[in-house]
Amino acid sequence: MRLSVNNLACDRGGRRIFEGVSFTLLSGEALVITGRNGAGKSTLLELLAGRLHPAGGKIIWEGAGERSLTECLHYVGHRDALKSALTAQENLDFARDFLGNPALSPAEALEAVGLAHAARLPVGYLSAGQRHRVALARLLVAHRPLWLLDEPTSALDAASQETLRQLLENHRAQGGMIAATTHSPLFLSEPKEIRIERQSARIEREVP
Ligand SMILES: Nc1ncnc2c1ncn2[C@@H]1O[C@H](COP(=O)(O)OP(=O)(O)OP(=O)(O)O)[C@@H](O)[C@H]1O
């Protein structure tokens, strides 16, 4: 599978946020997106997720047969889209039924993020970091090759950040792809990196 982004531009609120964003992402690769506050990192993920329309440029998704880009991705944004009144397990049951392509069971996914003990608690009772881990567990209950993650380490302690790093590397090892915004290192193996700057984006380092 291959995601190609060519000369992408985005306008929001009547002004140009960025332009000239180009990169490719292949199976097994990770892209780390950096930039100052307000540069447009989340906006770039929203464009890739199909939540916004580009003002220019192209997003090309190849190698997934009939499946469109939106059918092939998980998006975890700042808003976790969890239902507070439902338990962690119920939230994951819902995601699994809704998304199709089942992968791990909800119990296995909660175990993988270290939250087996919280399966029966309403998500509204969980801490910010625990809640974020439930949102990340959603990645595991339905198979989608491309993970779009907006500041995935936010609210995570050091142990949970390491768990996340392992989940991301496992996903890549199985041919998955990741694009993640971040203000802090994710410690991934040889990621591609792109820095979003006002009205332009520069490839900092690209792995051959
Ligand atoms: N719904 C919206 N309408 C208009 N402008 C918006 C909207 N959402 C975001 N913006 C603007 O788009 C720009 C980019 O925002 P974005 O959230 O993508 O930045 P970011 O790089 O992710 O920032 P941060 O590091 O603070 O999370 C900002 O100037 C922001 O004010």
UniProtKB/TrEMBL annotation:
Where the record annotates domain ABC transporter, the positions are: 3-207
Entry keyword Glycoprotein: no
Which InterPro entries is this protein grouped with? AAA+_ATPase (IPR003593), ABC_transporter-like_ATP-bd (IPR003439), ABC_transptr_haem_export_CcmA (IPR005895), P-loop_NTPase (IPR027417)
Specify the superkingdom: Bacteria
GO biological process: what's one of them?
cytochrome complex assembly
Q: Which PANTHER family match?
A: ABC TRANSPORTER I FAMILY MEMBER 1
Task: Give the protein name, as stated in the record.
Answer: Cytochrome C biogenesis protein CcmA
Task: Report the source organism.
Answer: Microvirga vignae
Q: What is the lineage of its organism?
A: Bacteria, Pseudomonadati, Pseudomonadota, Alphaproteobacteria, Hyphomicrobiales
